[in-house]
Amino acid sequence: MRAAAVCRFLWVLLLGIFMMPVGVEAAPMHEIVSVSSSIVEEDGATFLRTEIGLSKGAADYTVKTGSILHPNRLCIEIENTKAGDVPKEMRLDAAYAKSARIREKDKNIQVLFSLAGLAEDEGFRISTLEADKKNKKPFRIVVDIYEAGYVRRGYVDGLKGHHIVVDPGHGGTDQGASGPSGLLEKDVTLAVSLKLRDILENSGAYVTLTREDDRDVWGPSATDGQELQARADVGENTPGTEVFLSVHCNAFSSSASHGTETYYYYGKSWQDELLAQNLQEAMLEHNGLHDRGVKSARFYVLRNTSMPAALVELAFITNYDEEALLGDDAFQEDMAMSLAEGLANYFAVSGK
User: Fold this and answer.
1) Considering the entire predicted model, what is its pTM?
2) What Gene Ontology molecular function terms does this protein carry (predicted)?
C-alpha cells in the first residue's frame, strides 16, 4: 500500500510539472550605459542637457514632478532597466539643478533631479535621441532643464501626455498644389508640421509624423489609395494615438480665392467636429485671414482613421498674397503655434 501511495504521489507530481503553463520569456532588461550633462545653447535659450544612454534601444518611461515634500524634484522612471557602470550621483550646474541621482525601484530605475526651482512643466523638456552608430552613441533619453523662472519658447499648456499624429500633406513624388511663384504645397506642409512637432514635444506631448522629410509615405510607386492608407496606418499603428491632424494648403483655379478652412468627417463622432472647430478658431486668431468655415468632407484620412481627425487648409497657395505668407518662416511658426493651441483647446473642452 505504501509503495502504491508513493507511486501515485510521483505520478501526480510529474503530471503537474508537465501541465504547468510555459511562461512567456521576460523581456531583456535595459541597462543605463552612459550619463552625461552639458550646458547647451539652442534657439536663443540656454539650458542644462542630461543624456541617459540605454543599452537596448527605446524603453518605456514615466515623468513625475514635485510633491509636497519634494517640490523641486523631477523623476524620470525607466521601466525594466538596471543601472550599469555609471555614477549613481552627479553634481550639476546649480543654476539649473543641484544634482542627479540614480536609484533602483523594483525592476525599474529612477533618475532623480533636484531642480533649482519648482518642478513645473515649463521648467524642463523630455525627449529621445535614436542610437547614433557612427558616433558610437546609444539610444538616449534627453532631459533639458531651464533656469528657474524661465518661460520656454513654444510651450503650450494642456498638451502634456497627449499622443498626436501629424500628417504633412503630400511629399516625395506628389508635390501637391503650387503657387504663382513656384512655392510647393509639400514644402509648406512639412515646414509647418516640423515646427508643430517641436512645439508639441516642447509642451510634453508625444508626437509622430507620417513623414519627416520630402518623401512618399508608402513609396514612389504607390497608388493614391495606397499612399493615403499608409498615412492613415501611421495613426492606427502608433500606440495611444488620440488625434490625427493632416496639414494642407488650399488651391483653386482663381487666384482670388483666399482664406482658411478646416475639414472633418461627419460620419465618425462628435469629437471630430469639435477638433476641427478648435483648430479653425485658433488659426484665425493667429492669421487674421478670411474664415471659410468648418466643413464636412469624405477625405480618405478622415474616414479611415478610428481616432478624431481633422484636415486643415492653412491658406490658398494659389493666391499671390497668401502664397507669400505661406513661404514666410515667421508665418509658418505662427500657424504651427495656432495648431498647437487648437489641439490644447480641444483636449480641454473634450475632457480627453
Assistant:
1) 0.66
2) N-acetylmuramoyl-L-alanine amidase activity
Instruction: Give the C-alpha separation, 36 to 38, whole Å.
Output: 7
Which residue's entry shows cell 498674397? Answer: 321
**Rounded CA gap, 163 and 267, in Å?**
23
Categorize the per-residue pLDDT at 5 as very low, low, confident or very high, splitting at 50, 70 and 90: low
- Quick one: how far is CA 139 from the chain centroid? 17
Q: Report the SS3 class of residue 281.
A: helix
The count of residues in the chain is 352
Q: Specify whether the CB–CB gap between 84 and 138 falls below 8 A.
A: no
Could you read off the pLDDT of 285-328 as tens digits, one per residue?
999 999 999 999 999 999 999 999 999 999 999 999 999 999 99
Domains assigned to the chain: 30-145 (2.60.40.3500), 163-350 (3.40.630.40)
Residue with cell 497657395: 317
The SS3 assignment for 48 reads strand
Alpha-carbon distance of 10 to 15, in angstroms, equals: 8
